[in-house]
Amino acid sequence: MILIMKKYINGFFLAALLLGFVACSDDFLTVYPTESQEAGGDATEGAIMANLAASYQILLFDSYANNNYNSIFLMSDLRSDDIFKGGGDAGDQGQLYRLSLLDATPDELPAGLWNIYYSGIARSNNVILACDNAVDVPAERVAEMRSEALFLRAYYTHWLWKFWGNIPYFTDDLPEPYMAPQYSADQIYEFIMEDLDAIIEIGALPMRTSATNDGRASMAAVKMLRARVVMYQKDESRYPQVLADMTEIVTSGVYSLVDFAEIWSREGQFNDESIFEVNHLPGEYGGKTWASGWQGFGTNFPAFISPNDLSDPDGVYKGGWGFGPVRPWVIDIFESGDVRRDASINQWDEDQYVQRFQDTGYFMAKYAARVGYNEPPGDVDLNYENNLRIFRLAEAYLNIAELIVVHGQAAVGVSAEDALAEIRERAGLGPIASTVENIKLERRREFLGEGMRFWDIVRWGDTHLLTENLSEFSSNRTWESYKKYLPIPQSEIDRTEGEFKLVQNPGYN
Asked: What residues does 317 pair with on adjacent strands?
């Protein structure tokens, strides 16, 4: 809720000033500023950086915060045809079960992301305001920090847009009572594009960040986000631009595909394929606790999706809570010899773990809980250090193939066949024809468990896949077009009033 968010954003801004934002880069992400500024007041470089650190910090809260489990990948994949809800029983995190059945209601849905990402928008706005009031800061530094803030604002807004569509939006420091106008999904799309286009016009970000700046936005990340937003909106007028962006990234020479299995380990963080990832850190930097989820640097996602009470004879993986079991037929989408299968799906024998609700024996592997990845302080299940890989080079290749074959764009230097061949060669497979069916299937194989499948199905118009042959372990699902968006949380509607009264999304009244 915007009203409540405004009350705690200032408190967390102060916490960011005191605690800093820690990651691998000592140059940027360890920030202990001694100064801040009043809203609208003069801003030093240190004050702008403190605001920017606070804005990046929101990336660390989308697995557990505000007393909600909010993994952005899980929230996306639960509505796909790849996984079940799992967990203890149907009532264990019942809002997730309803989400998985495409049956969310205004009173029963995962609502934590609403507050988390609106906090991100507000923090990003603080950075932009500080940049407007910069004092004695070189123009190029202001341009760089402004660009990062615009990227983060667009990133947070795009998730709210994809989940809820018709949402409130604001770019200024909100006056009391801290409420903002609600816009249509098409209007929100334009706001996102304005921010992304502005970053590219400014031209202050490098195509790839240096190692000392791992975790910060790059020009490639901006263009990857622009591609996702344009392709989800199905804005054909922008397809040539997006294809040119993707081609520029893959031919830039600063990124390259790496061994698929190695991407997901600690050693694979910020590898040469990584374009943007969320930098979760070991417990030594300060962990989340059940009593205080709005702090710390770890993620709960690995514990959530790993089998209960697991005994791994190889000592690599450890147990969790058994959510998100992979639907049993998904294993069959992979060809023999495809290295992505075993890197994406763990199969365990019945005597190696405790079976729970909707158990299939298959679990998502990329972000599975690993031994030694969640050392205290903090509560261990909340503080795994598995980085979330948001944008990878593989997506740029597959976007190229899709834009050419599915959407009829003319190649601009990289053919659909070559783009598809690069992905399959890395997977240990030979080339295949670049047909619509093959491109869609390669995308499913490549991004299993990364929160991509549902959004792809919706934008392709293949929503029959969400309801066909999926009744095992659950009630039959139904799909109507209005379910593209979740219902706006009733608690948020109830807290708004007057000209800012939120209107429920169609189909949920």
From this structure: 370
